[in-house]
Amino acid sequence: MHPHDQTIFALSSGRPPSAIAIVRLSGVGAGPALQTLTGKLPPPRLATRALLRDDRGDPIDDAVVLWFPGPASATGEDVAELHVHGSRAVITTLVSLLSAMPQMRAADRGEFTRRAFENGKIDLTEAEGLDDLIHADTDRQRRQALRQLKGLLGDKARSWRDQIIQAAALIEAGIDFADEGDVPAELIAPALAWIRQLLAEIEEVLAAQGRAERLRDGLTVVIAGPPNAGKSTLMNQLARREVAIVSPHAGTTRDLIEVALDLDGYPVTVIDTAGIRQTDDPVEQEGVRRARDRAAQADLVLWLTEDDQAELERQTDGPIWFVRNKIDLMITEQSGAISVSPESPVFAISARSGAGMSDLLEALVGFARDYFGSTEHGLITRERQRTLLSETAAALRRSIAVVDLGEELAAEELRIAALALGRLLGRVDVEDLLDVIFREFCIGK
Ligand code: GDP
């Protein structure tokens, strides 16, 4: 238990006005606050209707309240939830009353989750999963985040860490036993076999990691081609709503250069390079700079042309699909996929009428499916997790390599491996990291 002397509160639901708003409190002051507002503490963990009153006894709102005494609560502390009507007036009144209570203050971003973490309710990988779940845009991202939140990586890391510590103990026992001279091989061999097996498991998870990380970030598709080819029009078709300004004059696509799409559950960001051009407006310059950076790292380029002669400007090393646009102007043209060569398919579309779009979309979904592959087994979703797991694997490898030089050296490497896993779980040495991680969260979470 990690007691905090301050009680925190926050509006945990969305922006008012809304049908219902949830104000959440955590800390020693949650119970007294509930008592002050409702007259008495409700029974634990039961939704209870209550009239909330201010300090003069005037009613604030007819509410439903919940009382979760610690440690059996989300944060491990006393937690109260006030489900009120989601008007600005109700929330403002409630918040100003709470702010005036002793040792009570508005919560920082992610502070509820941070307290849950500090009280051992969740490990750091689970906190990251929670953050991903809140920010998930597509169904596949949601499922992946939920796996993380359920502690799949955390459970594995804990088990590896325990086993590494035990293997290290075996080796150290051997060192004590041998006293001087070499540790008998029959003591070292089983420990080494154990470490090799752990290393294989970790390497397997590392090998499968790329895709889970990708699913979190999404796939980037760039629409490029000569001016007036119809890039912005295609962007609008893909987004099925008016996202970019389409105009016959070059240079008019200004603001929206990126749009996030949900393609069959896969997150895909489409960048319209028509928006990438010289500009004197500093804000726009920054947008253009970012779009250019992202376009350079595109996973797929759709090269849009009006005719076959148009020159291709290669902007990435990645795959390029040719898309011939404006077929509505060419009476004899067929629409859709006109060459199915998997490396560089050619499509014929009319971005304006939508002809041929279904083939192109279907191909994009297929591309996304291949790109993300099976993410069901991916456990690593972040750079932080990958780095620490790689460090663990490297230390295990070194421990195997140095054991002939001295068992103490091997045991030391095992300690380094266990430490890296401890940091993955957030159990050691992460104070500086916590601010960074929890800052990403929403207020009230
Ligand atoms: P960008 O400069 O590549 O972004 O091109 P725009 O999307 O702004 O399109 C340039 C012009 O071509 C606009 O007048 C569009 O309406 C027109 N256009 C785009 N796609 C089509 C199409 O499929 N058929 C026809 N006929 N015109 C199109």
From TrEMBL:
What EC number(s) are associated with this protein in UniProt? 3.6.-.-
Q: What is this protein called?
A: tRNA modification GTPase MnmE
| Binding-site residues, (6S)-5-formyl-5,6,7,8-tetrahydrofolate | 24, 81, 121, 445
Question: Residues that bind GTP, according to the entry?
Answer: 228-233, 247-253, 272-275, 350-352
Q: Give every TrmE-type G domain span.
A: 218-369
Chief location of this protein?
Answer: cytoplasm
The record's section on InterPro entries has: G_TrmE, GTP-bd, GTP-bd_TrmE_N, GTPase_MnmE, MnmE_dom2, MnmE_helical, P-loop_NTPase, Small_GTP-bd
Q: What class of enzyme is it?
A: hydrolase
What this protein is reported to do is described as: Exhibits a very high intrinsic GTPase hydrolysis rate. Involved in the addition of a carboxymethylaminomethyl (cmnm) group at the wobble position (U34) of certain tRNAs, forming tRNA-cmnm(5)s(2)U34.
Q: Which family does it belong to?
A: Belongs to the TRAFAC class TrmE-Era-EngA-EngB-Septin-like GTPase superfamily. TrmE GTPase family.
Q: Which UniProt keywords apply?
A: Cytoplasm, GTP-binding, Hydrolase, Magnesium, Metal-binding, Nucleotide-binding, Potassium, tRNA processing
| Pfam families cross-referenced by the UniProt entry | MMR_HSR1 (PF01926), MnmE_helical (PF12631), TrmE_N (PF10396)
Q: Which organism is it from?
A: Bradyrhizobium denitrificans
Oligomer status and interactors: Homodimer. Heterotetramer of two MnmE and two MnmG subunits.
For the ligand (Mg(2+)), the binding residues are: 232, 253
Q: Which HAMAP family match?
A: GTPase_MnmE
Q: Where in the cell is it found?
A: Cytoplasm
CC cofactor: K(+)
- What is written in the cofactor note of this entry? Binds 1 potassium ion per subunit.
